[in-house]
Specification:
240 residues, alpha+beta, 11-stranded mixed β-sheet, 25% helix, 23% strand
Length: 240
C-alpha cells in the first residue's frame, strides 16, 4: 500500500471524529448525566472545605490549652479565704499589684481583737492591703485599700479602693466617683466608704461589732446578711 493511500484513509478517520465532536455538545463518549454528576461531586468537595475552614479542623491543628488562673503566693495561712476565692479576687486588683505575694500582717486568730493592734501591724508599711472579714453568720466580705489602714483625722485613699462580698458568688463594688470618702480611722472606729451619714463598712474599736450600709462612694449592696454584724474572724493582707 502506498503512502498516499494510507494518508487518505487517515484523513477519512479524522473527518469522522471531528464530525462526531461537532454533532455532540458533550464530546465523544460523554453523556450529559455523567458530566453533571462529576460537577456535583466537585461542588460538594468545595462546600465541605469551606465548612471546615472557620474551625481550623483537620490533621496537624492543635487547640491552644486554656490559661490557668493566676494564684498569688500567700505568705501565711488564711482562716477565711480558700484558694478559689483568692483566684476570683485577683482580676479585680489593680495591675500594679499583680504578681506580688500576699503577706499576712494581722489576723484575729493569732493577734486578738483590737483595732489599735491592727493599726500597729501596719505602722511601717505603705503598701496596698486587703481586709477580709467573716461574721458569725459565716458571710465573707471586706475591702481593698490602695494604701495601708492607719489612724487619720480625715478621709484618705484613692479610686482603686473597693468593697466586695461572697454571697456566695463574688460581688465587687468599685468607686462611683460621687465622693472621695474612701477610708478614715481613729482609735474607736474604722469606716470605709460614706455619704449621707451611711458607711459602706465600719468596725468598732474592740473589733467585736461592725456594720454595712449602701453608700454613695461605692453604691454597694449591704455586705453582710444584716446591717450590723458580729466579727468571727478578720485578716489583713499586704500586697507587696
Amino acid at each position: 500500500m502506498s503512502r498516499s493511500t494510507v494518508a487518505g484513509s487517515e484523513g477519512e478517520v479524522l473527518l469522522f471524529v471531528l464530525g462526531s465532536l461537532i454533532s455532540s455538545p458533550h464530546g465523544v463518549g460523554i453523556s450529559p448525566e455523567t458530566d453533571c454528576l462529576e460537577e456535583a461531586q466537585t461542588l460538594q468537595c468545595v462546600e465541605t472545605a469551606e465548612q471546615e475552614e472557620p474551625g481550623r479542623a483537620g490533621v496537624g491543628v492543635t487547640a491552644s490549652p486554656p490559661e490557668e488562673p493566676y494564684q498569688p503566693v500567700l505568705n501565711g495561712e488564711s482562716n477565711i479565704l480558700c484558694a478559689g476565692q483568692v483566684q476570683q479576687l485577683v482580676p479585680h486588683l489593680p495591675p500594679r499589684v499583680t504578681g506580688y505575694p500576699w503577706n499576712l500582717l494581722y489576723c484575729t486568730a493569732r493577734d486578738g481583737f483590737s483595732l489599735k493592734s491592727m493599726y500597729r501591724s501596719m505602722n511601717k508599711l505603705s503598701s496596698p492591703v486587703l481586709l477580709v472579714i467573716r461574721d458569725t453568720d459565716r458571710q465573707m466580705f471586706g475591702a481593698f485599700s490602695s494604701t495601708t489602714i492607719r489612724l487619720s483625722s480625715c478621709f484618705y485613699g484613692t479610686g482603686e479602693t473597693f468593697l466586695f462580698s461572697f454571697s456566695p458568688e463574688l460581688k465587687v463594688f468599685k468607686w462611683t466617683g460621687s465622693n472621695t470618702f474612701f477610708m478614715k480611722g481613729d482609735a474607736d472606729l474604722l469606716v470605709i466608704g460614706g455619704g449621707s451619714g451611711k458607711f459602706g463598712l465600719w468596725l468598732d474599736g474592740d473589733m467585736y461589732r461592725g456594720g454595712s450600709h449602701r453608700c454613695e462612694t461605692f453604691d454597694n449592696e449591704i455586705l453582710s446578711p444584716q446591717e450590723q454584724f458580729f466579727i468571727q474572724d478578720l485578716e489583713v493582707w499586704a500586697l507587696t
